[in-house]
């Protein structure tokens, strides 16, 4: 199995370009299936999740051409086929095929999604939304069959603020008869990105990015061209890595507004942060203060940055507390960081981190952001080589990670 090898201890220096957002891309690609002509997506990241999606779309009869960071999807000859297993198990966001196929064909049969299962991740709010739109949902040995003679607009209150459920309901409701209102909707920038694409395809969606989204169903959707927003989680990870190595890095192609919670926390611990129009410069300092971080839904501090932030806080003086209010047990990186000499204990939904010096070790990423945490930790180690296995998880979310880190002066390579 492939490993990432890291000889740390060098401050990262230079400029890193942030690619398009994974969590937008994995929703925009299936959203394109609702169109009856070609959709062109620009600024698409090179990630294993996107590659798997492209294969799934072709199995369904769409014509997909992927050249550089542009993907052309022509779903004119798309067919409604069951997808009980196989590739849908490889990524979490395959659940968007439910909303997209339901909107396009009035039916979808699909296995439960895979991806990073750091804790049980239910989809009851997605199902509740489809049922509210008039669909019948049956679970047949782990495969979900959803069908509706006619989707009808409805008022849906989400019991839990869910990114996936908000987008899935938008996808299906775009083709329902009448109006849908989603209350207590998630407000992440990726939701606005999906609504922007759907509106360019002819949908009528208002309020994306607020807690109330209104969707007026339309009879058909057409092709268009759309550029994906920058990946705020990737950007945040490089901000953290730059600070952790006491480097000086320009993180380019970001929307600084999306980074506000991250920026505020870095400033609070003593990192020098400069916000530019579409870039952020991070200048590390020799000493950092311990801080408390609460991971929340957007615009709060992103849960996807909680694990790499844990690694950074091992470099601060004193005791920091990170509490994750989105996932109750997203701490699989902690035992691995402890193997590297970190002093961290988990109490309920909090990690309590005491500043300490990390050592090189062989560690395993059990999910995407746990992997990012281990890479950040490895970059801070002053002697020896840190070996990170579970690279397949890291490749789900970081476009060109090794090349980018090498350009910033890190000694990082793949082996095996
Ligand atoms: C592909 C994608 O965009 N993934 C992101 C998306 O995941 P995803 O969309 O799966 O996450 P959600 O926003 O749905 O989950 C938020 C919380 O709600 C709970 N929940 C969710 C749905 C549901 O039907 N029932 C329920 O109880 C989850 O267990 C979790 O505790 O948002 C998460 C939270 O920002 C991020 O960590 C993921 O990177
Ligand atoms: C949890 C994540 O992704 P997914 O929902 O695709 O598993 C993530 O990006 O950190």
UniProtKB/TrEMBL annotation:
Subcellular location as annotated: Cytoplasm
List of residues binding UDP-N-acetyl-alpha-D-glucosamine: 92, 121-125, 304, 326
InterPro entries: Enolpyruvate_Tfrase_dom, Enolpyruvate_Tfrase_sf, MurA_subfamily, RNA3'P_cycl/enolpyr_Trfase_a/b, UDP_GlcNAc_COvinyl_MurA
Domain Enolpyruvate transferase: 7-405
Catalytic residues identified in the record: 116
Stored Gene3D superfamilies: Enolpyruvate transferase domain (3.65.10.10)
Pathway: Cell wall biogenesis; peptidoglycan biosynthesis
Modified residues (2-(S-cysteinyl)pyruvic acid O-phosphothioketal): 116
Residues given in the record as phosphoenolpyruvate binding sites: 22-23
GO biological process: cell division; cell wall organization; peptidoglycan biosynthetic process; regulation of cell shape; UDP-N-acetylgalactosamine biosynthetic process
Gene Ontology CC terms, in alphabetical order: cytoplasm
A GO molecular function held by the record: UDP-N-acetylglucosamine 1-carboxyvinyltransferase activity
Reaction equations catalysed: phosphoenolpyruvate + UDP-N-acetyl-alpha-D-glucosamine = UDP-N-acetyl-3-O-(1-carboxyvinyl)-alpha-D-glucosamine + phosphate
Family: Belongs to the EPSP synthase family. MurA subfamily.
Family matches, as HAMAP family: MurA
Protein name according to UniProt: UDP-N-acetylglucosamine 1-carboxyvinyltransferase
